[in-house]
Model the fold of this input.
Amino acid sequence: MSESKHTPGPWHYEDGPEPIDQQMDTRSIHGPDNHGIPHAMVYDDLKQGGDIDANARLIAATPNLLAACKCERDDGMDGNILREAAETLRCRGFERQAARLEHVADAQDPAIAVEEGAPHE
Done:
């Protein structure tokens, strides 16, 4: 496993600086020891009606999501535990939930690869 180069979590978000354009809104993404300096900014065009808080929450959750993917992979399961759980759900008639777990298993390795420096497709 390669060493992560990103700012370690947990991350959080808060209102960003006042945008120059009043049609924009901002949120700042912060790591644990940033002393008020944001690691990333989320911008949203208010005219487009996007949900800036939902986007900022997703970005702030990234270190935890990545850690969960890596934990399962590093335990030697390579998505198998998720696939086994999906099969159990499917056998009990929970097709939609099984499909969602399989989707997570399929996304796990590409997400880790991008974080480790592979080109994003």
In short: The mean pLDDT is 79.
